[in-house]
């Protein structure tokens, strides 16, 4: 037994101890203090005012994989159909009553919608077209968390009718099965 202990001791002494340490440094790059002097203005054509909190506004979110948005809605205000190509969104109603929904992908194109009250939560899967609208008699507020520091935002009407350069009006008329005058009108708005 003493011989075995001596042999193990000699092996331990003769084998150099090698250690490798790896770690992720803190991804925090900056910090930001909220600007509380910026009031929400819902007196626009949609009756809503989104306030995003993404890496563009808060550089400290870089690499963290999260962002947020506050949306203020006038009575009847909407957030038009849009999508986030890089993030799932979870929305919580802070005040008011919202009708929200998303459309599943082809071929089904099924609308999943719900009327939400204060405290209710709804999830919009990544990349799916979704909307929000205030269906209550008072202003509403929602808070959204998104699963990317840069979720992206593509508004459907703006992308289709407001592209630069414009998509060909005859193509859009055929795609939407409407008269080209309707497309011309919509392109002038957006």
UniProtKB/TrEMBL annotation:
InterPro entries per record: Cupin_1, Germin, Germin_Mn-BS, RmlC-like_jellyroll, RmlC_Cupin_sf
Q: Name one Pfam family in it.
A: Cupin_1
Residue span, Cupin type-1 domain: 31-184
Q: Does the keyword Transmembrane apply?
A: no
What subcellular compartments does it reside in?
Answer: Secreted, Extracellular space, Apoplast
The family assignment reads: Belongs to the germin family.
Q: Which organism is it from?
A: Thlaspi arvense
Give the protein's recorded name.
Germin-like protein
The record ties this protein, via SUPFAM superfamilies, to: RmlC-like cupins
Keyword field: Apoplast, Disulfide bond, Glycoprotein, Manganese, Metal-binding, Secreted, Signal
Q: Where is the signal peptide?
A: 1-22
Entry's PANTHER family? GERMIN-LIKE PROTEIN SUBFAMILY 3 MEMBER 3
Query: Any idea what job this protein has?
Result: May play a role in plant defense. Probably has no oxalate oxidase activity even if the active site is conserved.
């Amino acid at each position: 037994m003493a011989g075995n202990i001596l042999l193990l001791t000699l092996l331990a002494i003769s084998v150099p101890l090698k250690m490798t340490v790896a770690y992720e440094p803190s991804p925090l790059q900056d910090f930001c203090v909220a600007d509380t002097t910026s009031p929400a203005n819902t007196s626009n054509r949609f009756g809503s005012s989104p306030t995003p909190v993404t890496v563009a506004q808060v550089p400290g979110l870089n690499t963290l994989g999260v962002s947020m948005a506050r949306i203020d809605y006038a009575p009847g205000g909407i957030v038009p159909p849009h999508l986030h190509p890089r993030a799932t969104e979870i929305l919580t109603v802070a005040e008011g009553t919202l009708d929200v929904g998303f459309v599943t992908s082809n071929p089904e194109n099924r609308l999943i919608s719900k009327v939400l009250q204060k405290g209710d939560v709804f999830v919009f899967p990544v990349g799916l077209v979704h909307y929000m609208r205030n269906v209550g008699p008072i202003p509403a507020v929602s808070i959204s968390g998104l699963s990317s520091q840069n979720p992206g935002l593509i508004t459907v009407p703006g992308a289709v009718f407001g592209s630069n350069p414009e998509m060909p009006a005859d193509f859009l008329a055929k795609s939407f099965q409407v008269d080209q005058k309707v497309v011309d009108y919509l392109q002038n708005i957006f």
